[in-house]
Amino acid sequence: MTQLDSDFTRRQFPAFDSPLLSAGAFFENAGGSFPCRQVVDRLTRFYTHRKVQPYAPYEASRLAGEEMDEARTRLAALMGVASDEVSFGPSTSANTFVLAKALRRHIADKGGAVVVTDQDHEANSGAWRRLAEDGIEIREWRIDPATGHLDPQTLRPLLADGRVRLVAFPHCSNVVAAINPVAAICAMAREAGALSCVDGVSYAPHGLPDIPALGADIYLFSAYKTYGPHQGIMVIRREAGEALPNQGHFFNGGSLYKRFTPAGPDHAQIAACAGMADYIDAAHAHHFPGSGAGPLARSRAVHDLMRAHETAILQPLLDFLADRNDLRLIGPRDAATRAPTVALVHDREGEKLAMDLAPHGIMAGGGDFYAVRPLRAMGVDPDHGVLRLSFVHYTTKEEVGRLVEALGRVL
């Protein structure tokens, strides 16, 4: 089996050339990953040579528009969807807010209900919960308080009466990190006549979503956590997007990718998102030379490459933590069933533990990470918080070893 080439991978990220960032080991990737070189180069080029109103006939403007279109087209192909089913917005939180506004009337007119979870980051929970202000029933799909697990069987009773119009849930939580069976959950929602809205913010950094395989009606993630600029990316399948009321300018209502972006887009950052596709294609070409695979197949191969590397270097950390009785590990102990985002509860506050690790060259974070609901559901005081250690595929086995050694000293 092809293994990830860490030397090649790290050469794609300018952060590893920075004395400030390369001096330590970065374990706060769930808050935002390093941007790849291709994104940085495209953003620099746009601001240097294309920073004009796009889509006019003069050369700089024409190229600006082409680069924006390229980002949408290539990312869509890597995710297995049509180009106009991909929309950009200022953040995933903002994109979710706009979607909730679109669904508000759609659901209320049909006397419907919405299912949310208490495993979510607040961005994919709060906006939907606010629909209760308009009389829409909110049903909470609750996690197991001991494990943080979302059991699909406990979703069935919430869907039984056929009134649910939307099921909003995470691909994986930003503190629990267990990978939910997205395809099965989306199928359950579809059978009940409901749309599925998947928060992929905490999963997409570990491999772009395969939308046809997942079956999600709506899938959202953040480019800045997926090696890109600060943009929210949302996939809205055509049938769902065209059924919802337009939230953009009235004259843009006929364009699917403009229907849910009421604010003017950030031209430079959208164009720079094509660098994410550049990086995935470069990783595929390096590891699978001459394969001739199409975009979705390339994305799937790179996804599997990333996940295999992450799983292999995560398990020793989980084993080290499992052997200790002075802390609580949130989420599964099997690396294959979770993302490499590890939240720990200790007698010391999460932020204090992060401060204690910093002199050892470990860059990590502590707090509630906007995951107040899941932490409370699992009996963790959000004010006390957790230490969160998160990495992606550019992290090395040696860095995880350094983290384990530092944790041993600090704990």
UniProtKB/TrEMBL annotation:
Output the PANTHER family linked to this UniProt entry.
CYSTEINE DESULFURASE, PYRIDOXAL PHOSPHATE (PLP)-DEPENDENT ASPARTATE AMINOTRANSFERASE SUPERFAMILY
Organism ancestry: Bacteria, Pseudomonadati, Pseudomonadota, Alphaproteobacteria, Rhodobacterales
The record, for Pfam families, names: Aminotran_5
Q: Which organism is it from?
A: Szabonella alba
Keywords of the record, alphabetical order, are: Aminotransferase, Pyridoxal phosphate, Transferase
For the keyword Transferase, the answer is yes
Could you name the domain of life of the organism this protein comes from? Bacteria
For this protein, what is any one GO molecular function term? transaminase activity
| Entries under InterPro entries matching the protein | Aminotrans_V_dom (IPR000192), PyrdxlP-dep_Trfase (IPR015424), PyrdxlP-dep_Trfase_major (IPR015421), PyrdxlP-dep_Trfase_small (IPR015422)
* Annotated ranges, domain Aminotransferase class V: 26-403
UniProt entry tagged with the keyword Glycoprotein: no
Name this polypeptide is given: Aminotransferase class V-fold PLP-dependent enzyme
